[in-house]
Write a structure and sequence with these properties.
Helices cover 72% and strands 0% of the residues. The chain has five helices and no strands. The protein has helices at 2-25, 30-51, 60-80, 88-101, 117-143. Helix 2 packs antiparallel against helix 3 and helix 2 (30-51) runs parallel beside helix 4. The chain is elongated and about 85 Å long. The model is unreliable at 12-25 (pLDDT under 50).
């Protein structure tokens, strides 16, 4: 019995040490991942954006394929180096990309707009009319005292 508990203690100690050492050996190397996406993904993105007319940088249909390529590149690199995706490194990377390439872009293409008047008017007019009619009905019924329910 004492021999079994000693061997269990040794196994537990080995597992404890392994649990402390293995995460640092395997897993995401953030510095390497950051350098890799900076070298590979950013270089391709810069090359593609340089080929695109600067006036089209804010046009989503024109930049969508390039942007998707950048996104896919960061994802593929994350898979290869055992990093989670998305992560803080990717967030900082895309914030930097947006600061450099898309800082002058207006938000008008991405903001919500009011629907056309032909659609909006009934959604406003009908509740207003129903409210006025119900108010008139209540006033009319309150003046007629005979035959109250």
């Amino acid at each position: 019995m004492a021999l079994e508990s000693a061997s269990l203690l040794k196994v537990g100690l080995v597992l404890l040490v392994a649990a402390q050492v293995l995460p640092s050996v395997s897993g995401c190397n953030g510095g390497f991942y950051e350098r890799t996406i900076g070298d590979l993904c950013s270089a391709k993105f810069k090359f593609d954006m340089a080929a695109l007319d600067r006036g089209l940088w804010c046009s989503w249909p024109d930049t969508m394929e390039i942007y998707e390529g950048l996104t896919n590149c960061t994802y593929q690199v994350a898979l290869r180096v055992d990093c989670y995706w998305p992560n803080q490194i990717v967030d900082r990377f895309f914030m930097q990309i947006h600061r450099i390439y898309f800082h002058d872009c207006a938000l008008t293409g991405r903001l919500l707009h009011d629907p056309p008047t032909g659609i909006l008017a009934p959604f406003i007019g009908v509740p207003v009319l129903v409210t006025l009619l119900m108010t008139a009905l209540v006033v009319w019924r309150s003046k007629r005292t005979e035959g109250v329910l």
